[in-house]
Amino acid sequence: MLFKATVNIIRRSVCYNVRTLCRLRDPLQSNLLLCNGGAKPNSVQNYCSLYVAKRFKSKKKKAVNIKKDEDSDEEKEKDDEEEAPIGSKVIKIKVSSIRLDTISKAGFGMSRNKIEEAFYASKIRINGNKVFKKSKEMKIGDEIDLILHQSMDNPELLVVNRIVILSMDLINDRVQVKLSIDRNLLIEHYEDSHL
């Protein structure tokens, strides 16, 4: 880093010195050419290549582009709110595959071991049905339920955490999944429930 800074300083000073020498060498000729509006045939650019430091260039977006991005983000948020049920939270996650275990891990915010324990205890349901493979691939519109416990007030009701898959988009080598998450949702017992 120090070496690059030193080289940049030397290059700038060399360019400045060459400009100064060219101006001092032919003061009359340069004054006449500047008054006539003509370009100098022996300008500084012919003698040395000027160094342009890229690190000083701005990479900021223009204000117009930023406003357009903000408008499109607001429209997307409105669409998210319309798609999701009332009272649920909409999140976007990026996963490597669309398997049940990876989406459940990211959506429920649990470790893979906890998801496996719930799977082997038959506490995970897809669209109300038992799951026999944790490698099952999910589709748009699928509901994943994680059974927490029976309701204390009414034993015919279950308390679950539910994920609804709203959309899937392929981005590079990963899948961006939009989920609607409901926590502590009270639902009726499943027909084949063992609890």
From TrEMBL:
<dbReference type="GO" id="GO:0005739">
    <property type="term" value="C:mitochondrion"/>
</dbReference>
<protein>
    <recommendedName>
        <fullName>Mitochondrial transcription rescue factor 1 C-terminal domain-containing protein</fullName>
    </recommendedName>
</protein>
<dbReference type="InterPro" id="IPR036986">
    <property type="entry name" value="S4_RNA-bd_sf"/>
</dbReference>
<feature type="domain" description="Mitochondrial transcription rescue factor 1 C-terminal">
    <location>
        <begin position="93"/>
        <end position="167"/>
    </location>
</feature>
<keyword id="KW-0694">RNA-binding</keyword>
<dbReference type="InterPro" id="IPR057896">
    <property type="entry name" value="MTRES1_C"/>
</dbReference>
<dbReference type="GO" id="GO:1903108">
    <property type="term" value="P:regulation of mitochondrial transcription"/>
</dbReference>
<dbReference type="GO" id="GO:0003723">
    <property type="term" value="F:RNA binding"/>
</dbReference>
<dbReference type="Pfam" id="PF25818">
    <property type="entry name" value="MTRES1_C"/>
</dbReference>
